[in-house]
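Changelog-linked ticket: adenosine-5'-triphosphate example.
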Amino acid sequence: MQEFNVTKIELNHLLIGVNMKRRDVFPFTAIIGQDMMKLALELNVINPRLGGVLIQGEKGTAKSTAVRALADLLPPRKCIDGCRYHDDPNDKSNWCDECSEKYKDVEPPVKLQSMKVIELPVSATEDRVVGTLDIEAAIKTGNKSFEPGILADANRNILYVDEINLLDDHIVDVLLDSAAMGINTIEREGISYSHPARFSLVGTMNPEEGDIRPQLLDRFALSVKVTGEQDPEKRAEIIKRRLSYETDPEEFVNQWKDEQEKEVSRIERAMDLLPRISISDDMLLIAAKIAIILKVDGHRADITLIKTAETIAALEGHLEVSKEDIRKASRLALPHRMRRRPFEEQELDWSEVDKVIDDEA
Ligand SMILES: Nc1ncnc2c1ncn2[C@@H]1O[C@H](COP(=O)(O)OP(=O)(O)OP(=O)(O)O)[C@@H](O)[C@H]1O
């Protein structure tokens, strides 16, 4: 990136400016506390294959503020120029049909584009989500004419659903299918069209407003519960920062520029480090034992626990996963994976988990 001779934040703003006009958003680093929520969001940026995060909590606890603020920390990445799904030039096996055809014998043109937070409104129609096929054009010309939807925008980005527990069942099904396959397939009157749709799903919800479907809950790699700050000093600081932001957003964002830049660098360093993180067999055994004592369903929990611990190690800047990484990862990857009886609000007994972590050699 050095050759551009601009800071990462400036570059991000430059790139965002090209793609869409954005108002100044409340800076991620100005959010007080809520460390687990912020960590879970950053882990999904560092490791887009982690599998998303569900943030649950009472009203007004900075859930949506944090997700929207994440947009300013998202690093630029290489995309095929002109591709509607921002295909990765280095990941040929996941290219869309158009790029696979167009660039089968020539190198694709490459551009840098910032990752984005794509919002899926809870009221979105299925057509808006999956896109639309022009059946008439297909019949007349034999060519498939496809108008991309939200899932096209979401490819290689973060897909954010506020009030995800209120999403219509058929939209939930569409999301589950795409999340499982990494592909969005549209079928209308015997004509079908597919495009890549790999995204990190971020959902926020207030459990007082209704439950989330268990199949959807299970799709999230991580889950976090947030509650309002109880320390009066911190609460007062939240008011102060919000008022200061509302008085002059541009000035407030400017004041937090250095902090934001540091965070972007931390994320980028972690992304560089992630492929080099190693994990010992002892740590794998700890993960397996935790899964057994917690009686989780299947093996997804242990695998996610390890992926999360690896990503935490990268963020912490060490090359080998430690017990502390596993401990922190367990708080994010396990709470929503306990086997529950209906109507049972079960709290995890962390002492059991910690015993497994600490007893291991
Ligand atoms: N920890 C915090 N640090 C900074 N600002 C905060 C914090 N908690 C809440 N706020 C402020 O409180 C307001 C409400 O936050 P936000 O809109 O993100 O709530 P929410 O959790 O998404 O809930 P809702 O679903 O009601 O919108 C925002 O103005 C936000 O800036």
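Closing comment: Example verified and attached. Residues 277-359 form a domain with the Helicase, Ruva Protein; domain 3 fold (CATH 1.10.8.80). The pocket of adenosine-5'-triphosphate is lined by residues 26, 31-34, 59-65, 204, 206, 229, 238, 241-242 (CB under 6 Å).
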